[in-house]
TrEMBL record:
Its EC number is 1.1.1.30. The lineage of its organism: Bacteria, Pseudomonadati, Pseudomonadota, Alphaproteobacteria, Acetobacterales. InterPro entries: 3-OHbutyrate_DH (IPR011294), NAD(P)-bd_dom_sf (IPR036291), Sc_DH/Rdtase_CS (IPR020904), SDR (IPR050259), SDR_fam (IPR002347). Belongs to the short-chain dehydrogenases/reductases (SDR) family. This is 3-hydroxybutyrate dehydrogenase. It holds the Pfam family adh_short_C2.
């Protein structure tokens, strides 16, 4: 991998596993210094840090605005700069809307949407001062289309896409870009754990449960791999992507084409 990000510094939220860790790893391999963020067992966080060049880790809770702002300030203090911000932290809860617990709604909006705003607001002054910045918000196919029983998640991810566009317009003349990545179903441990219960529920094989139920809306009938998302992110923060701004880029196996 070319070291196109040599000398740059990045912060990736929700990066102790899954998509966030893959993005952080790719940024590190391309030469960036990276700060990780997220929860997990001490040994899991240690393994993630080791995979990203013994990267510093922030335990900031993305549901708490003050902690989000302090995390950004900490990254700038440690690195002397912050060129790249990837807002990836997110949670999910599934329920009929009339049964949706209000506290779950509040948590999803706070972590999946509001944390993006707070991190961007904290990072932008330094990016403007330095005349360069790249912001990526990891949204979802559900930022562009809806599914039932995911009210808060769909609302939050639609909000992320709107936030992305608005910020992009504000910084369009600043050599700063703000884009959203909208993945479909990505192979992560949490996603894969849904397959066996679906198979048992419907009395079918796990392969059938995956293709006919979990990936029913994904025409490719295969997982999106975390490295595929990471490669898209790496290009968006690289030297050849400055003309892409305010985009919501799908990586969903054809879901949005249907």
């Amino acid at each position: 991998m070319e070291r196109t990000l040599e000398g740059q510094a990045a912060l990736v939220t929700g990066s102790t596993s899954g998509i966030g860790l893959a993005i952080a790893t790719f940024l590190h391999r391309a030469g960036a210094r990276v700060m990780l963020n997220g929860f997990g067992k001490p040994e899991e966080i240690a393994a993630a840090r080791a995979a990203v060049g013994d990267a510093p880790h922030s335990p900031a809770d993305m549901s708490k605005p003050a902690e989000v702002g302090a995390m950004v300030a900490n990254a700038e203090a440690q690195f002397g700069r912050l060129d790249i911000l990837v807002n990836n932290a997110g949670i999910q809860f599934v329920s009929p809307v009339e049964e949706f617990p209000p506290e779950k709604w509040d948590a999803i909006i706070a972590i999946n949407l509001s944390s993006n705003f707070h991190a961007i607001a904290a990072a932008l002054p330094g990016m403007k001062q330095r005349g360069h910045g790249r912001i990526i918000n990891v949204a979802s196919a559900h930022g562009l289309v809806a599914s039932p029983f995911k009210t808060a998640y769909v609302a939050a991810k639609h909000g992320v896409v709107g936030l992305t566009k608005s910020v992009a317009l504000e910084v369009a003349e600043e050599n700063i870009t703000c884009n959203a990545i909208c993945p479909g179903f990505v192979r992560t441990p949490l996603a894969e754990a849904q397959v066996k219960p679906l198979a048992e529920k419907h009395g079918i094989s796990e392969e059938a449960a995956l293709k006919d139920h979990l990936l029913a809306k994904q025409p490719s009938k295969r997982w999106i791999e975390v490295d595929e998302v990471a490669r898209m992110a790496l290009w968006l923060v690289g030297p050849d992507s400055g003309g892409v701004n305010g985009a919501a880029l799908s990586i969903d196996g054809g879901w949005l084409a249907a």
